[in-house]
Hints:
By secondary structure, the chain is of the alpha+beta class. It has helices at 7-17, 72-80, 103-118, 139-143, 146-151, 159-164, 213-226, 256-276, 295-306, 309-316, 323-336, 364-377, 414-421; strands at residues 24-33, 44-57, 60-64, 86-92, 125-129, 173-179, 182-189, 202-209, 231-232, 242-251, 284-292, 346-349, 352-356, 359-360, 392-397, 403-410.
Amino acid sequence: MEIFHTREEYRAALEARAALPAGFKAGVASLSFFPEELGRAKEYPMNLALILLDRPTPSFHALFTRNLFCGAPVVIGRERLKEKYARGILVNNKISNVAAPGGVEAQESVLAALAEALGERQERFFPASTGIIGWKLPAAEMRAKVGELSGNLQSTSLLPVAEAMMTTDAFPKVRSARCGEGVIVAAAKGAGMIEPNLATMLVFVLTDVQVSRSSLKKCLTRAAAATLNRISIDSDQSTSDMVIALSSNIKPAVGEEAFARGLEEVLGLLSGDIVRNGEGVTHVMQVTIEGAPSVELAESAGKAMVNSPLVKTAVFGNDPNVGRLVSSLGDFFGNRGFALPRSLLSVSIGGIEIFAGDRFLLDEEKEKRLFAYLDECSFSLAGRFPPHDRSVNITVGLNVGTKRATVLGADLSYDYVKENASYRS
């Protein structure tokens, strides 16, 4: 279990995780602009971040949101997958460039300016944007900063990128794992509009381990399905979700299975960080559905529980209102037409069994233990860092099969409503 007492302790851990793999550089720059939609009523800040390979790589892949109203970076990114080589990723926060007039053209104009500054083809750069939906990208101001951005490149740390792409995030998120002689390092941005399908918000995975493009695609798809696709903060899938993976191919290969395990470890840890950093979140819920006839059914049942507003608010209030858990399961299975024998179902919270044999197993002593357990798992991000990585562990036994899945979710607090009621102000 990780415990951090100060923001400085957490930053030290981030710095240790964020060392760039061989063959990569990263840099950031800042600008300010007046949104065209508001005239000159208010000036807004924006950060730019660049992840750059020392040389183009044939080993890259990306996964994108399935939201129909996806942003210009997703539209462009899908086209980039047709290219033979990739060189880097340009990221901006504050505006997500979704369905704004001329959005694709504006994004490409910035990439063209960057490519010119670096002496590279613009088709080798992926764009990524996050922030307000519907506003136009300040392309002129961004183009004016690409020279400074390319001049700020360093080969030490991915942490500046993780910090630069934050919006409502309380803290930056970086994870890493050794992989043979090389390393896998990834940074993520995400705090709201989180229930992904093939990706989650912005996630950038960098490695120096030699891996073919086909193997990277296979491993990334598998790892995302087991980690990033099994989290939900508010059940809203973003317009801008993407996961991009790049390899410099400098260090020896480790074999596909070993690489897949390393990738899944890193993305699993990042998934927990994203949920823990959710807007207004004070508890992380980890729901494991066991004994299911299929992984898909187990995953869907877990999502039904963590997305239930009544379950989420009970956990927020440290209220062991366990009837809400069983009700959410009954809702899911009953409306799905799945004949689950109630007598086989078992449910426990923090190892404390609360339902089995078609009846609740509650008493005064258990109620006190459950309340204490929920309280122990709570946290505050007032200090802008995660104080611990505890989660409310809920285990459900269906006992009608051999498959299982674990889903991460978050509680629902007053602060989530406050954050999203005044997001643009």
